Amino acid sequence: MTKKTIKIAIASQKGGGGKSTITMLLANKLFFEKKQRVLILDCDALQNSCYDVRESELKKIKLIKEKVDKASNGESVKISPDEKTLWRNFLRSYAEYPSVKENFSIQIPKTKKNNDNLDEVVAQLPDYENMGYDVILFDTVGTITTDGKLMGLMKNMDYIFVPIECEDQALKPAIASLTTFLKLSDKHTNSVFGFFNKLKLNEKDQNRCLINILSVATAIHLPLLHTEDNQVAYVDDRAVYRQPIVKSSLIPSIYNKTYKESEGNALLEIICNKIL
C-alpha cells in the first residue's frame, strides 16, 4: 500500500507573519532529523520565497567552492569567517546525508511569478501527491481572500498551522484565520493549530497582547499548540532563525547550537509530533 503524503500549510491572513521562515525551518527538521522526503510549494503569486532561499544558498556555495579551489591552487583569495563556517557545515552535511548529494535534499520547484501562481499549484497538486514525497509543505500567500482560491487549496490540507504575532493589529486576523480554517471541513477539527511567532517576552505590550489572545482563544475554544507541561508554545524573536546557515535547505539547522536550544526549535518538534 502506498504511503499517504501528508499535506501541511503554514497560513494566516496577515502578511509578514513569518510563514516562509517557519516553512523552511520545519522542512529542515522533517528532512534532516525525521528522515522524511519533503517538498515545498510556494503559493505566493509575487515571490518564490523558499525557492529564492534555495537559489541563494546554491550561489553562495558555488562562490565559496570557487574560492576554495583557487586557494588550493595557491592563489591569493579572501574567504570570510562566515563563508568558512558555511563551507565547513555544508561539507559536514554533504558527508552525513547522502541524499543531499542525490537531489539537494528538500525539493522546492520554481513556480511562475505571476497571478496564476496559486492556480498552478492547485492544478498540479495531484501530480505532486503521486511523486512519493512523505510531506508537502505549502508556503501560502499573505491573505486568505484571494478569490477563494486559497481556501479551495486549504480544504486539501491534512494540517494547518497559523503563526500569530503578539501585536494588536495581528489579534483580529489571527483569530479570523483560525476560525475560518476550522470551518473548512470536519476533518480539520483536530488538525488546525495556532502558535505564537516572533514573541518578545520582555516587552510589556507583547505580554498584554499575548494575554488578550489567550483569553479569546480559551473563550471560543480555539486550538493552540502547547508544550508537554501545558505551557503555550511559541517561537521567540531571535535573529538566529533568519541566518542562512539555519534557514537552510542544505544544512541541518541544529548544527547551530543557539538554534538547537531555542524555543522555536522546540515548537517545531511539537509540530512534528502532531503530524508524524
List the helices and strands and how they pair.
Layout (H helix, E strand, L loop, with lengths): L5 E5 L8 H15 L4 E5 L6 H24 L8 H16 L1 H6 L13 H13 L5 E5 L9 H6 L4 E7 L2 H15 L9 E8 L4 H16 L14 E3 L20 H4 L2 H13 L1
Parallel strand pairs: 1-3, 1-4, 2-3, 4-5, 5-6
Helix pairs in contact: 1-10, 2-3
Brief descriptors of the model:
276 residues; alpha/beta; Rossmann fold; six-stranded parallel beta sheet; 46% helix; 12% strand; globular
Q: How is this structure best described in words?
A:
With 276 residues, the chain is of the alpha/beta class. The protein has one domain (6-275): P-loop containing nucleotide triphosphate hydrolases (Rossmann fold). The chain has 10 helices and 6 strands. It has a 6-stranded parallel β-sheet with strand order 2-3-1-4-5-6, sandwiched between helices. Helix 8 links the parallel strand 5 (192-199) and strand 6 (234-236). Helix 2 crosses helix 3 (81-96). The protein is globular and about 70 Å long. The mean pLDDT is 83.
Instruction: Indicate the CATH class.
Output: Alpha Beta
Helix content: 40-55%
Cα distance, first to last residue? 18 Å
Give the CATH architecture: 3-Layer(aba) Sandwich
